[in-house]
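User: tokens in, sequence out, please.
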């Protein structure tokens, strides 16, 4: 009967252990040990208090009313089960994480589509070992060297290039 009280909060420890990063493994183990100890202590006790034979006590205790008083107090004793005041927060976090996961999936699918389009473009080109400089300039106009319109000097990075001067109409 005691297991019925906590069956709704059973945890799949194996699935949880797969998601724990190696740096947090010791904390996870300590938490599982503490949880198991709590579970054993709960299961060691019955769900309901044991039934007492009040008639036998009334015959053995000579003070009148004492057993009746104890019986009344014993039967009035109700140990409240702790109130669940964090499940709403956990559900809210779960919904938030689910939204974040969906957004990540949408963004990832967008990136996948871009990468596939880029791959298809690269597959449609000539292989680089067969490509001439003209073919490269046609395929990648922004990356190709243009010696007439944009001449550059080795090592062809921005730091090594001289500032370009526009020809002045007065310099004849």
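Assistant: Sequence out:
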């Amino acid at each position: 009967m005691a297991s019925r009280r906590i069956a709704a909060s059973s945890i799949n420890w194996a699935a949880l252990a797969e998601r724990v990063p190696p740096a947090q493994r010791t904390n996870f183990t300590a938490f599982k040990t503490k949880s198991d100890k709590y579970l054993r202590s709960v299961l060691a006790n019955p769900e309901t208090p044991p039934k007492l034979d009040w008639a036998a006590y009334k015959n053995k205790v000579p003070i009148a009313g004492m057993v009746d008083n104890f019986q009344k107090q014993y039967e009035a004793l109700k140990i409240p089960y702790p109130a669940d005041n964090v499940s709403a927060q956990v559900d809210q976090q779960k919904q938030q994480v689910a939204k974040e996961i969906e957004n990540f999936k949408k963004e990832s699918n967008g990136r996948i589509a871009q990468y596939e389009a880029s791959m298809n473009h690269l597959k449609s080109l000539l292989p680089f070992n067969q490509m001439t400089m003209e073919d490269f300039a046609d395929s990648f106009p922004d990356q190709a060297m243009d010696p007439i319109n944009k001449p550059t000097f080795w090592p062809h990075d921005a730091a090594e290039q001289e500032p370009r001067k526009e020809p002045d109409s007065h310099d004849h």
